[in-house]
Design a protein that fits this description.
heterodimer, A: 292 residues, mainly alpha, 2 domains, two-stranded antiparallel ribbon, 9 helices, 2 strands, 73% helix, 3% strand, extended, B: 560 residues, alpha/beta, Rossmann fold, 6-stranded mixed β-sheet
């Protein structure tokens, strides 16, 4: 299996950083559209899924952002009409639409980021910087569901002996207060045991090593190289040629030149990389199945 | 040479007058399965903790503990951490990390073992335990039994030479606890691992042990083989530990017979067949008469926690009559606790009717359901305590139910006298032993003067004496006309104390009957005494029943 989910956490992190940086600094509506489409294709293909209501939400954000911009920004030379003596310009409308698409692309990629870089990958990455912080986070991640469960237990136990079981406002406040004070003593009790258990298993000895399930495979290396290659290409090309799209005061298209086309291709490949990986997996499996 | 040697060990906690351990001497050989027993608070935990350097409590210690030729205090930190494994009682609170794989690797990481070796050792232990299915799971998703298995695996991965276990099965249900003991036995027999385990319930473990140690008030009262241990109770049949012995051993010691002592059901069966006839093969039981008034009634109750989750109760019908002690038995996750929640108005069924005291449960407004009516003692009594002393907690409850503080104080005095907790009122609830906590929690439950008391696993983690106390309290409550409904795994407790009981299975109550009838009709899900007498005597459910029948048959002189 080689898709974005199964890549080494470090490679996945580099990938997301590349995509986010490229979206933010490109200043070109074509790039935002590509990023959005890439995000939609990947999410739709993988287990992240895009539901109809996500499209509804996206449309809402799009309309809200693209319509607010011309109301506040009056730059631009093409005046369409006036609202309260303020000009509404075509440039401002288009700029609003560009902002909206960029925002949606960022939101969508951020959602994928959250689903791909799970708790354990975060812990692995933090362990590289500080093993102690990583262990602390791991114990915290374990403690949260434990305390949540405890809150439920305490609440029903208190209610079932009739203490602050009424529906009044005062009762509710008092019962919440009680639950949390009980939770604190319980948490401390639990922490004593965890401490003993850690100590019993040798925590605090010198020379602690770090174990993880993630292995850096050849394919991780290959994909990392590819990502870095695209990154370097984007940086070099955008330094060489101005690919910016200027909205104000009037549209100024970047010159159609070889380096612009190359940049677009590099960005396309970068944004569609996870999608391509997933599709490749599908094809491979279909192929394997037909052999069996 | 002994593997573990304890010489003249005495120990006292700081700022206490009495010592916790007095002049303890014993040895454990390599590969021995050693059982440590004794009543709650006798010093078992302190003794076990002293054996492990990292957990050794602070206090005044004299005497020697020699592990493998070296005093534990002089042991190298690494050796002590890896070679002496320790498992505590609560499966939940020993888990350090959020995922199963990380928990397994945690100890090895601490020892500084290289990553590749950790991978190999983790793989090995996962395969040995057969826990590959949940290797990638979050620890919070595991059941109690699985958590304790994980704790054991996480200690074993460090390749210990001796395992110290402090009541590891006390918080588990019977199935999970049998599984756990099985694993231990396998480790001991197949790998020759030395085991020193403290346990309350001796039914399944005594016949497995090579050696038994018994502590009493900090003194080592007995050390020897299991059969000698059983023999010890023949001289002291009223000893508080006696009721924790396996049923076969209890029957033997009550009969005061002169043969070799049986330690498990198989030996118990042959012991009775060899020595007693069965001309009188049944005891006459009194017909059980219940009260006419119904205390709680469930009619075709359906319940699920969430819209998309499976049904927990599937048309459950249940009637509990006034003044009786009704026990609900059943496996884990079958819906016993949910049923209690429904009777107590904590959950609302989506279909069906619930009557409490003849009135629909929905008709009770505010907290009137809990005032002089129904109250629940939930599984973990600790969650009921919020204040610094037991008295403060009780006073708070009393303020809810009684207008004048005098009235409240009178009620507290009355209840604490009945439960015999007057001397505990000024203590911090977390400092009490399990049984004492249970009693104080029960006091809090009784403040609202309930007519119906629901107890969820009241005997969990209690020793034999604690169970006896709970049984007596239930009798006292019944004497005042209170209806008691108990949810429990503890078959023996039900056989001895219930008026009626039923099995919860697949969302419904099955085979509601008196304990005698209920257990006599079962073959697998029944008391050890009943399994011993099965096919030989009828309707013998408790050890006392079997003993009575044995005595009648030998008096008649009717051998085989």
């Amino acid at each position: 299996m080689t898709d974005l989910f199964s890549l080494h956490p470090f490679v996945a992190l580099i990938y997301f950083i590349s995509v986010f940086t490229a979206i933010m600094f490109s200043q070109n509506p074509l790039f935002s559209v590509i990023a959005l489409l890439g995000g939609i294709c990947f999410s739709g293909k993988s287990k992240i899924h895009i539901r109809p209501k996500d499209f509804g939400f996206g449309l809402l954000v799009f309309l809200a952002v693209s319509m607010t911009n011309p109301l506040f920004s009056h730059n631009g030379v093409t005046v369409l009409f006036f609202i309260n003596n303020n000009p509404v310009t075509a440039e401002a409308i288009y700029y609003g639409m560009y902002l909206a698409v960029m925002l949606l692309a960022v939101l969508l990629w951020f959602r994928s980021f959250n689903r791909v870089i799970t708790d354990d990958k975060w812990l692995y990455l933090t362990a590289k910087i500080s093993p102690k912080l990583s262990l602390l986070l791991s114990t915290a991640f374990r403690f949260v569901p434990y305390l949540q469960q405890q809150v439920r237990k305490i609440r029903s136990a208190q209610k079932a002996v009739g203490i602050f079981a009424g529906d009044s406002w005062m009762d509710k406040i008092k019962s919440t207060f009680n639950v949390y004070s009980a939770l604190i003593s319980f948490g401390i009790e639990g922490a004593v045991d965890v401490g003993a258990s850690m100590k019993a298993r040798g925590y605090g000895l010198k020379g602690r090593s770090n174990y993880s399930l993630f292995r850096f495979r050849l394919v991780d290396f290959a994909i990392l190289c590819f990502i870095l290659w695209m990154d370097i290409a984007l940086i070099v090309l955008s330094v060489k040629a101005d690919i910016r799209f200027v909205f104000y005061p009037a549209f100024l298209f970047p010159k159609a030149q070889a380096s612009l086309i190359q940049t677009v291709i590099a960005f396309l490949l970068l944004c569609f990389l996870p999608f391509i990986l997933s599709v490749k997996e599908d094809i491979k499996w279909r192929f394997l199945r037909s052999k069996i | 040479m002994a593997f573990l040697e304890v010489e003249n060990l005495s120990f006292g906690y700081p700022e206490t007058k009495n010592k916790t351990l007095y002049d303890i001497n014993f040895t454990v050989s390599e590969g021995e399965f050693c059982l440590l027993c004794g009543a709650s608070g006798c010093g078992k935990t302190t003794l076990l903790k002293l054996l492990k350097k990292q957990l050794s409590p602070y206090g005044t210690k004299s005497g020697k503990i020699i592990y493998n030729g070296t005093e534990t205090e002089a042991l190298d930190e690494k050796t002590s951490a890896s070679e002496i494994g320790f498992i505590m009682q609560n499966p939940e609170s020993q888990i350090v990390t959020d995922t199963v794989w990380h928990e397994l690797s945690f100890g090895l990481e601490n020892l500084g073992v290289p990553s590749d070796t950790i991978h190999r050792r983790v793989a090995e232990i996962v395969s040995f335990f057969g826990i590959g299915d949940w290797f990638h799971k979050k620890t919070a998703e595991l059941s109690g039994g699985q958590k304790q298995q994980l704790n054991l695996a996480a200690v074993l991965v460090m390749q210990p030479k001796i395992l110290l276990l402090d009541e590891p099965t006390a918080q588990l249900d019977p199935i999970a606890s049998a599984d756990f003991l099985h694993t231990l036995q396998k480790l001991n027999q197949e790998l020759g691992l030395t085991v020193l385990i403290a346990e309350h319930n001796l039914e399944d473990i005594l016949s497995v042990a090579d050696k038994v140690l018994m502590l009493e008030n900090g003194n080592l009262q007995f050390a020897g083989s299991p059969r000698d241990f059983a023999g010890y109770f023949k001289q002291n049949p009223d000893h508080p530990i006696a009721s924790a012995l396996p049923a076969a051993t209890r029957i033997y010691s009550m009969l005061q017979s002169g043969n070799t002592c049986p330690l498990n059901v198989k030996e118990g069966r042959s012991f009775i067949c060899r020595n007693y006839g069965h001309k009188t093969d049944s005891i006459s039981t009194k017909e059980y008469q219940h009260h006419d008034e119904k205390a709680v009634e469930l009619k075709k109750v359906w319940f699920r926690y969430e819209k998309d989750s499976p049904d927990i109760l599937k048309g459950t019908n249940l009637t509990v009559f006034q003044g009786e002690h009704f026990c609900i038995l059943g496996g884990n996750g079958t819906g016993k606790t949910t049923t209690v929640g429904i009777m107590a108005g904590l959950f609302k069924p989506y279909s069906g009717k619930v009557f409490v005291g003849g009135k629909r449960i929905e008709k009770y407004a505010g907290n009137s359901l809990y005032f002089q009516n129904i109250a629940v003692l939930t599984q973990n009594p600790q969650v009921l305590f919020l204040h610094k002393t037991v008295l403060e907690d009780l006073t708070e409850s009393a303020a809810v139910f009684y207008d004048s503080s005098d009235e409240g104080r009178a009620k507290i005095a009355q209840i604490s006298k009945m439960l015999d907790i007057e001397n505990l009122l000024e203590c911090h609830p977390y400092d009490l032993s399990g049984g004492e906590q249970q009693k104080c929690a029960l006091a809090k439950v009784l403040i609202g003067a309930p007519k119906i008391v629901l107890l969820d696993e009241p005997t969990k983690a209690l020793d034999a004496d604690g169970k006896r106390v709970i049984a007596e309290i239930i009798k006292a409550l019944k004497a005042t006309g209170i209806t008691v409904i108990t949810v429990t795994h503890d078959i023996e407790f039900v056989a001895e104390n219930a008026d009626r009981c039923g099995l919860f299975f697949d969302g419904d109550m099955i085979s509601v009957d008196t304990p005698t009838e209920f257990f006599d009709r079962n073959t697998f899900y029944t008391t050890a005494a009943n399994r011993i007498a099965r096919g030989y005597y009828q309707k013998a459910v408790t050890c006392e029943d079997v003993v009575m029948l044995c005595k009648q048959n030998s008096k008649d002189g009717a051998g085989k």
